[in-house]
Amino acid sequence: MSYLKNLSKRNIEGFSVDLIKSGIHDVELDSFSRAAQLFELGIELCVFVDDTLFQGQLSIPLRDKLIFEEGLIETKSYDELFSKAFVLSLFYDKNCITFSNKISSFLQSKYSNDCTHFLYCHTLIKQSNIKLAYDVLKTEEHYWTVPSILFLKGLTKQHLNKNACADFYEALLLNNSSIWCAKYLFAEIRKHNIKLQFTDEDLSDTLTEAFIDMNKSVNDFEKIYFMVYNELNWSDSLAVQNMTIMGIPHFIDFLQRNEIVLLKEKDKTKEEYESYEQDLFDENQLNQNGNNSKYGNYNGYDDKSIDNAFEGDPENTWNVD
């Protein structure tokens, strides 16, 4: 599928795959500057970098070409390092992933942008270092507007048996064309038995109805979602093969109407955590030695003592001999 065809269908995921494939070709030609730009754009637009889509372009000669002395990492340009690390991360090879992780760790410490952050956590996950990846992802909330990083965070939470609906949902809002994201959200809702609100109109739309129907499998839903994005235009509404398709906009509207329940387990930002901790501190202060909110711990006495022993008059506390 060409760039223009993917764009005309708003298939951002397919467009991202095209960009990454072009970038791999540029790496083969040592055009690292252009490759880095294509990879970065692909990462920022896509939700999931599916390694299986690029295996036909990966070869042993290319792998060997990308490996170099670890001691030379600090001597090479950002573009070369990022391009090589990204392509190495696509190989099903432990040594490639390990070396990619070392490069991306260096890039993250020196440059720290959306794409180095993604690459570093992506390689951590491929090394099965899930807990560290999650800890990095949950504390860097300024990256939470990048769909691929939101999706990675969702993957780590899944592995750690946490509710990842919020991450997959927010990533899908940013990139509606991601079949990966849609089906992971579909499975996560069933895993946590989340009840969604829907209308009769929702049930008349084949895509939305498939998402709601607890008897539908992931494969059933994936096939319908794939058809909507690859056979129809983004907002098409039509009846075909006993199905009524109202288009992706209707499906997204259905999800947004259920946003409160989908975001229920969303990670708190640093500011939200600090506010939450302050609220707990204030509450604990009020509960120490009784509740002091009424009289403000007047003359060292708590509210309960003033009410019971001093007839509810704080001034009476001064008359104690």
3D structure, described in words:
With 321 residues, the chain is mainly alpha-helical.
List its traits:
321 residues; mainly alpha; 18 helices; flat
Tell me, briefly, the overall form. flat
Order of helices and strands: HHHHHHHHHHHHHHEEHHHH
Please report the number of helical segments: 18
Spatial sequence of strands, sheet with the most strands: 1-2
User: How many E-type strands?
Assistant: 2
Q: pLDDT below 50 for ≥5 consecutive residues: which ranges?
A: 276-281
Distance between the termini: 91 Å
* Helix content, binned percent: 55-70%
Radius of gyration, taken over Cα atoms and rounded to an integer in Å: 27 Å
Content-based structural category: mainly alpha
Biggest pleated-sheet summary: 2 strands, antiparallel
Mean pLDDT: 83
Topology:
Elements lengths: L2 H6 L3 H17 L3 H14 L14 H7 L11 H12 L4 H17 L3 H13 L3 H10 L7 H13 L5 H10 L4 H13 L8 H5 L1 H7 L5 H14 L6 E3 L2 E3 L2 H10 L1 H4 L7 H18 L15 H7 L12
